């Protein structure tokens, strides 16, 4: 069971979603505005946040950015907007996943379980993975660049670890979706946007990456 925060201004949708998720075994708190949701998360952090984009006042995009400034909580967008621009913008703001309304609650619950499994302490000691000035510590859940900690989300960390564990090998977008997001079928834009965000954090020149490189038509690989 996960503690969830649902930020949705439509009372009918918010209530039906909360009731359906509670039936799935989750504990749900609700907020009708971004401001109320941010206060609720600061006071009593949830295991995951579900947020609509079209909120009154502060919109969902800014809500996600504000959450990401201090919190690595998994964030799933739930929105009627299915345009590619909106999906990419939400992921670039810091969301981990994007679900288009109407929501299939069973699928959403499965995604919530997956997103909350993405970072777990290693079962046995795992040595640090070193790529020049980049250091990945799977056991501690840390990433360091030139010895300084790098703030990454849970999904970014899982993606980086997956690439690091297969250093020098190309992993396709579909393989990464299956291994990181645990989706047999999913939107490959999730991978592309998260790779882009990781490059901004771990590459000295994200436009010409040294470590996290694209193999055109094939996928991505991490180089030492």
UniProtKB/TrEMBL annotation:
Classification via InterPro entries: CheY-like_superfamily, OmpR/PhoB-type_DNA-bd, Sig_transdc_resp-reg_C-effctor, Sig_transdc_resp-reg_receiver, WalR-like, WH-like_DNA-bd_sf
One Pfam family of this chain: Response_reg
4-aspartylphosphate: residues bearing it: 52
Residue range(s) of DNA binding per entry: 126-224
Domain Response regulatory residues, every copy: 3-116
Domain of life the protein comes from: Bacteria
GO molecular function, one term: transcription cis-regulatory region binding
UniProtKB keywords: DNA-binding, Phosphoprotein, Transcription, Transcription regulation, Two-component regulatory system
Domain OmpR/PhoB-type positions: 126-224
Entry GO terms, CC: cytosol; protein-DNA complex
GO biological process: regulation of DNA-templated transcription
Protein known as: DNA-binding response regulator
């Amino acid at each position: 069971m996960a503690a969830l925060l649902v930020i949705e201004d439509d009372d009918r949708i918010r209530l039906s979603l909360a009731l359906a998720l509670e039936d799935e075994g989750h504990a749900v708190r609700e907020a009708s505005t971004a401001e109320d949701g941010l206060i609720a998360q600061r006071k009593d952090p949830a295991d995951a946040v579900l947020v609509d984009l079209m909120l009154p006042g502060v919109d969902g995009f800014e809500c996600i950015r504000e959450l990401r400034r201090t919190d690595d909580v998994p964030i799933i967008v739930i929105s009627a907007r299915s345009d590619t621009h909106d999906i990419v913008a939400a992921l670039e703001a810091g969301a981990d996943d994007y679900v288009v309304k109407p929501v299939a609650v069973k699928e959403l619950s499965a995604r919530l379980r997956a997103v909350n499994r993405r970072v777990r302490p290693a079962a046995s000691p795992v040595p640090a993975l070193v790529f020049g000035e980049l250091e990945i510590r799977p056991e501690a859940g840390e990433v360091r660049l030139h010895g300084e900690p790098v703030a990454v989300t849970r999904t970014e960390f899982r993606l980086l670890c997956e690439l690091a564990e297969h250093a020098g090998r190309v992993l396709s977008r579909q393989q990464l979706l299956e291994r990181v997001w645990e989706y047999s079928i999913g939107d490959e834009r999730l991978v592309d946007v998260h790779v882009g965000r990781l490059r901004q954090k771990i590459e000295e020149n994200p436009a010409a990456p040294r470590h996290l490189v694209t193999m055109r038509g094939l996928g991505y690989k991490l180089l030492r």
